[in-house]
Amino acid sequence: MKLAIYGTGGSGRELYEIITVTREWDGRWEEIVFIDDTKPEGEFLSCRMVPFASFCELFPADDIEVAIAIGEPAGRKALYERVTGAGYHLATIIHPTCALSPSAVFGQGVIVKDSVSISAGAVIKDNAYINGISMIGHDVEIGEHCQISSHAVIAGNTKVGPGVYVGISACVRDHIEIGENAIIAMGAVVMKSVRPGRTAMGNPAREIAENKDHQVFK
Ligand SMILES: CC(C)(COP(=O)(O)OP(=O)(O)OC[C@H]1O[C@@H](n2cnc3c(N)ncnc32)[C@H](O)[C@@H]1OP(=O)(O)O)[C@@H](O)C(=O)NCCC(=O)NCCS
Question: Does the N terminus or the C terminus of the chain have fewer Cβ atoms within 10 A?
Answer without folding.
Answer: C
